[in-house]
């Protein structure tokens, strides 16, 4: 694994651990945000490995997955999960979206996000 790929993998692992810590502390908005970030960064690791170049400046998970060449190999559940994660990056950043998002991110929902994030993260990581 080259340094660029390792950089993204390490950041992705760190973000997943942060998502877990946010669950414990009850900061559910940031559980979702960090789950998105976890997958974004592991996809950037996959892109960097495949293309031997810097990852694109994008937060779009489906775009990154396609550019990394993994999207077409995802089971349907992973593709559907990307659709769940996709808005958590943007909506967590803007005040007009935060209140509605906070109400939808219950502890149970966040636990589910973490489980699904871990599964997708491990699936991508195993292919690096």
Keywords summarizing the entry:
globular, mainly alpha, Four Helix Bundle (Hemerythrin (Met), subunit A), 128 residues, 6 helices
Instruction: Report helical residue fraction.
Output: over 70%
**Largest sheet properties:** none
Order of helix and strand elements from N to C terminus: HHHHHH
CATH arch. level architecture: Up-down Bundle
Tally of separate domains: 1
Q: Determine the number of helices (DSSP H or I, runs of at least 4 residues).
A: 6
CATH class: Mainly Alpha
Structural class assignment? mainly alpha
Number of strands: 0
Q: What percentage of the residues does DSSP assign to strands (E)?
A: under 5%
Give the N-terminus to C-terminus distance in angstroms: 8 Å
What's the overall geometry?
A: globular
Low-confidence segments, given as residue ranges, are none
In the CATH hierarchy, what is the superfamily?
Answer: Nucleotidyltransferases  domain 2
């Amino acid at each position: 694994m080259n340094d660029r790929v390792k950089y993204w993998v390490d950041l992705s692992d760190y973000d997943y651990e942060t998502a877990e810590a946010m669950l414990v502390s009850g900061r559910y908005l940031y559980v979702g945000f960090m789950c998105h970030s976890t997958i974004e960064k592991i996809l950037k690791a996959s892109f960097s490995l495949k293309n031997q170049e810097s990852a694109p400046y994008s937060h779009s998970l489906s775009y990154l997955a396609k550019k990394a060449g993994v999207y077409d190999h995802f089971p349907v559940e992973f593709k559907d999960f990307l659709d769940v994660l996709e808005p958590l990056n943007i909506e967590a950043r803007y005040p007009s979206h935060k209140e509605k998002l906070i109400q939808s991110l219950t502890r149970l929902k966040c636990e589910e996000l973490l489980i699904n994030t871990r599964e997708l993260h491990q699936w991508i990581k195993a292919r690096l």
